[in-house]
Design goal:
The protein contains 13 helices and no strands. The protein is globular and about 60 Å long. It is mostly helical and 314 residues long. Helix 9 crosses helix 11.
Amino acid sequence: MINTPEKHDIKQNVGIHPFFQFLILFSLLIGLVIVGFAIAQAIITAKYGANTMTDVLAYTVSSPNALNGLWILQIVSTTIPLFITPIFFAWIIVREPHEYLRDTPKFPLVLLGIAFIIMFFSMPLIELLSNINQNMVLPHFLKAVDDWMRSTEAAAQQAQDAMLKMNTIGDLFFALAVVAFLTAIAEEFMFRGCLQTIFLRWTKNQHAAVWITAILFSAFHMEFFGFLPRMMLGVLFGYFVVYSGSIWPAVVGHFVNNGTDVVITYLSQHKKININPDDQHVFNYAGYIISFIIILFLFWVYRNVALGKKQVLL
């Protein structure tokens, strides 16, 4: 018997109000990121010298050892804090680890397959939102801010492209492990686990919790011109968790999204496919509409299977 999300979320932590839970979680993350940055800086400086650390902060990817430094900075100051924060918060602060991490394995395994298919058919919509986002321009009086954001994101994209320069199959598996697997687990525990649970208990509305968390999830990445597609991904992952009661369908969806980008980039670099991973005009409007309709249908199937109404598959 599968509990519905409503039944699953009846429990309330009466010791700490959700508002203060949010403040604690956010403060804990910021603190660990600062500590992680200091540790990463010490490692990079000790291993490669102070100049390399300067180049890393400036995204000077042409500098020797800068790529190694970027990977160290990414893992130590971002990935690890994102992983530790929700686990520490759930086990030590609120002491309801399974309620906040949503790590239950008790859900229909077919949901993992449905989540995978949803992510596959979401690609056209992600492209559409990305194109809309890229064409957004701030008001004229904020032109300086607009120029700064575009130049900053361009530099960050250049650094990311350099980090994903995969010469060997070993480089591919390393990128999949860090960019797809570890990031998916860490970010889902943090956002769809702890944060979405906090807002669910705060607002007592699962839809509000999903959308608020998705907005914060996108804002966390600090990429204005990628805000809409990342928010949509956050919404998809959020409903994966709401309907199943488990974090794992969202982890699979997150892994598929990130992993697909990594694999396509690798295959493109080695001339195995003719697709440009940076091309945002692969689909047409018919593809966008079909994508939207299929996603709605698959979510209807997903929800009914999650709530035990398996007859929809007959």
